[in-house]
């Protein structure tokens, strides 16, 4: 009797099922916004893809803008690098650490989900500037702060000249990431070997640039 009482009612989803369906809704919505653009995407089409009623979606999201922002913010949250994962990349050699961080970040952004998020931000941040800000604050900024700590650490012995570690770290991330990400977001392909070669070249160039003289 107790076992029967503990079962969910027929037709009523469990909490886990409801959460999974909610996550699926946001994924489907993100795809619609990417494929059709914000203006052309509709709640009706998204609801049909999910076999939902518009009323069900509107019960959670009062308008298209709130659904769009929820979908993008969910994708941003999944791109956050755990603090422990970053700290595990730290070594006593700055070049080795920078290569590891660049590989980790590049691998993360160049996934299908990462590229989808980049394309959405590129095309819709003029309409929703907060998505660019949130992506930077939650995704890029912690990585830049970690690199700044590494630059500061190696500047102490005098091997690295860094008057502004945060600015130096920002320049490094821009230098190592911008070209390959733009190239790939545009629909081109880079092999793992090509990515590693670009990272190795950029890191060596950066190290030479910040050495004390």
Short description:
By secondary structure, this protein is mainly α.
What do you see in this structure?
This protein has 213 residues and is mainly alpha-helical. It is 76% helix and 0% strand. It contains 11 helices and no strands. The protein has helices at 2-6, 15-40, 43-49, 54-60, 64-78, 83-87, 94-109, 112-124, 129-155, 165-185, 192-210. It is elongated. The N and C termini lie far apart (80 Å).
CATH homologous superfamily (4th level) name of the largest domain: Tetracycline Repressor, domain 2
What top-tier CATH class of the largest domain fits best? Mainly Alpha
- Supply the helix-strand structural class: mainly alpha
- Taking all Cα atoms into account, the compactness measure Rg is 22 Å
CATH architecture of the largest domain: Orthogonal Bundle
Number of helices: 11
Order of SSEs, N→C? HHHHHHHHHHH
Mean pLDDT: 89
Main beta sheet: strand number and arrangement? Answer: none
How many beta-strand elements? 0
Terminal Cα span: 80 Å
Uncertain residue segments: 1-8
- Number of individual domains: 2
């Amino acid at each position: 009797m107790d076992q029967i009482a503990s079962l969910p009612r027929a037709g009523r989803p469990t909490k886990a099922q409801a959460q999974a369906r909610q996550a699926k809704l946001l994924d489907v919505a993100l795809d619609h916004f990417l494929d059709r653009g914000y203006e052309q995407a509709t709640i009706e089409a998204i609801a049909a893809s999910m076999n939902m009623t518009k009323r069900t979606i509107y019960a959670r999201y009062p308008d298209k803008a709130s659904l769009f922002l929820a979908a993008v913010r969910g994708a941003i949250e999944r791109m956050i690098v755990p603090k422990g994962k970053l700290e595990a990349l730290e070594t006593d050699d700055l070049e080795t650490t920078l290569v590891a961080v660049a590989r980790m970040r590049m691998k993360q952004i160049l996934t299908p989900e990462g590229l989808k998020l980049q394309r959405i931000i590129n095309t819709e941040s003029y309409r929703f500037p907060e998505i660019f800000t949130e992506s930077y604050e939650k995704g890029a900024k912690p990585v830049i702060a970690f690199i700044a700590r590494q630059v500061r650490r190696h500047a102490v012995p005098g091997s690295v000249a860094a008057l502004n570690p945060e600015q130096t770290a920002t320049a490094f991330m821009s230098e190592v990431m911008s070209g390959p990400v733009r190239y790939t977001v545009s629909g081109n392909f880079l092999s793992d070997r090509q990515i590693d070669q670009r990272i190795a070249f950029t890191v060596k160039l950066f190290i030479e640039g910040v050495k004390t003289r």
